[in-house]
Write a structure and sequence with these properties.
Strand content: under 5%
Number of strands: 0
Oligomer: single chain
Distance between the termini: 107 Å
Largest sheet: none
Number of domains: 1
Low-confidence stretches: none
Shape: elongated
């Protein structure tokens, strides 16, 4: 008869220790989760600040200012700009390009090597 109350006391003790252990684990995991949320918020704030800095540093006004101040560049005037116009390609221009390519084949680096080393 003494074994039965002893068994229930031992069972109650084991369950209580198990409950306390699980509660301690849950509190530790909750703290870890809170720390991760705080770290995530800090990284997101830093990311937003970096995006703002990238936008500021890559603005054309700032690039022009750095080019003038640090590199000594100047804004091009109308007389400094050269405009090129191209005619629309005619249908037979592809054939002319092929002919020009064939006539220029004898002047490439490989043709020079072929002339210098005819056996290779």
């Amino acid at each position: 008869m003494v074994a039965r109350p002893l068994f229930f006391m031992l069972l109650t003790l084991i369950l209580a220790v198990g409950y306390i252990y699980c509660d301690a684990l849950m509190q530790a995991k909750g703290k870890d989760l809170t720390d991760l949320k705080n770290d995530t918020a800090a990284v997101e704030r830093e990311n937003a600040a970096l995006k703002t800095e990238i936008a500021k540093l890559s603005s054309t006004r700032r690039i022009e200012e750095v080019a003038r101040r640090e590199l000594g560049m100047v804004q091009a005037g109308e007389a400094d700009i050269v405009y090129y116009t191209t005619a629309k390609a005619a249908p037979d221009s592809a054939e002319k390009t092929k002919e020009k390519t064939k006539s220029a084949e004898g002047y490439g680096i490989f043709s020079v090597f072929k002339r210098l080393f005819p056996g290779s």
